[in-house]
Amino acid sequence: MEEEKLEQGILTWSMEQLAGKSWSLPAAPKLQPLSGDAGFRRYYRLNSEPSLLAVFAPVEHEDSKSFVAIARYLRDQGVHTPNVVAVDFERGYLLVEDFGDRLFSDQVQLDDSCANELYSEAMMTLLRLQQCPVMTIPAADGESMLTLPQYNQSRLREEMSLFDEWFLPQLLGYSISDDERNLLDAVYLQLEGAALQQPQVWVHRDYHSRNLIYRDGQPPGVIDFQDAVRGPITYDLVSLLRDCYLRWPPAQVRQWALAYGDMAVECGLMAPVTQKGFMRWFDWMGLQRHLKVLGIFSRLSLRDGKTGYLEDIPLVIRYTLEVASAYPEFADFTYWFREKILPLCEQQNWYEDFQIAGDGRNTAQTELDASQLS
How many angstroms separate the CA atoms of 100 and 143, rounded? Predict the structure, then answer.
C-alpha cells in the first residue's frame, strides 16, 4: 500500500508539472518501476512522449539539491547529464530526461568489439568533466552558490576506514589487533599522500560502466554524479578502467590509462609526468578506492539488504592484491591479507577464486593511443 501511495503521488505531481509543457501524455498516464541503484532512490519511467524518469529521492538520505546544481552546471560544460525538467525538494520528487536503460556494462556484454569506441568516448567525456573551470557553481535555487567539497586527507581516510569497519569485522567476523591497526594506518597514510600529490580536478566519484548510459551515435549519458568533489586526477580514471563490475586485461588498462595521461597533459590538466609516476598514481588511487569498495559492498549487503554486491567482491579482492603485490611498500599488507583475510573470504558463500574473478565477462583485446581520444 505504501508503494502504491508513493507511485500515485509521484504520478499526480508529474502530470501537474507537465501541464502546458511540450511533453505529451497518453489518456492513461502510468509509471513503470525500474530497478534501483546502490542508493535509496526509486526510479519510474513515465509513458510521456518523449519518455521521462520520475525519481523519488528520500530527503533524509539523498542530496537532490546537489544533484540538480551539478547536473545543470556539467550540462552547460558539455557533459551529457540528464536535463532536470521539474523538482520538488521538500518531497524528494524529480522529473528528469530519460537516457534509456542500456548501460555501458550491458553494451559491452552484447558486443565487446565496440570497447575501444565506448571507452574513448567515456574518456573524452571524463576529460570534459575534469576541465570544468570552477569548483564553485550556482546552487539549485539559482541564487546562492555551491562549492565542491575537497577530497582531503580526512575524507580519504574516512572512506578507507570502511574496510576495517564493515568488511573485516562485520562481513568476515575478523577483529584486528593493535599491530594490524598500525599496519593499516601506515597503508592508508601512504595512499592519502599519493592522492594529495596529484593535480586536483572535478571528480565524479563513481565513474564506471553502470553510471554511463550508452546512446547510439551520441556521447554517453552520465548519471549518479551528485557526490562530486575536487580531488585526484586519476580517481575517476581508475574507477572506469578497473571497474568493480567488469575487468579488462592489464595491458589494455595500462594503454588506456597512459593515453589519457597524455591527453591530460595536452589539455593543461597536469604537468608532464613519467609513465612510471602516472601509473603509480593510478595504481595507488585504485587501491584506495578498492579498499573503500570492500567496505561499501559489505555495508550494502549487511545494512541495506542488497546482497547482490557480494558477488562482485572477488574481483575487487583481485584488484587489491594485484596492485599491493606490485609495490614493495605494501609487502606487509599483501602478506597479511593473503595469510589472515583470504582464508576467511574462502569460507564465504559468495567467494570465487579471486585469481580468475572477472575473467570471461569481456574478452576483447584492443589498442588505444592518445590520437584516438581526440
Answer: 32
Record: fold of 104-373: Aminoglycoside 3'-phosphotransferase; Chain: A, domain 2 (3.90.1200)
CATH superfamily label, 2-97 = Phosphorylase Kinase; domain 1 (3.30.200.20)
Residue 245 CA to residue 117 CA, distance in Å, equals 19
User: In angstroms, how far is CA 262 from the centroid of its own chain?
Assistant: 23
* Res. 27 pLDDT band, cuts 50 70 90: confident
Amino acid symbol at 239: S
- Give the per-residue pLDDT at 372: 42
Query: CA 209 to CA 239: how far, in whole Å?
Result: 9
Contacts of 240 (CB under 8 A, 6+ apart): 119, 122, 123, 126, 207, 208, 209
Q: Please state, in angstroms and rounded to a whole number, the distance separating the CA atoms of residues 77 and 201.
A: 14
> Hey, which residues does 138 pair with through a beta bridge?
145
Instruction: Give CA–CA dist 159/155, Å, rounded.
Output: 6
**pTM to 2 decimals?**
0.92
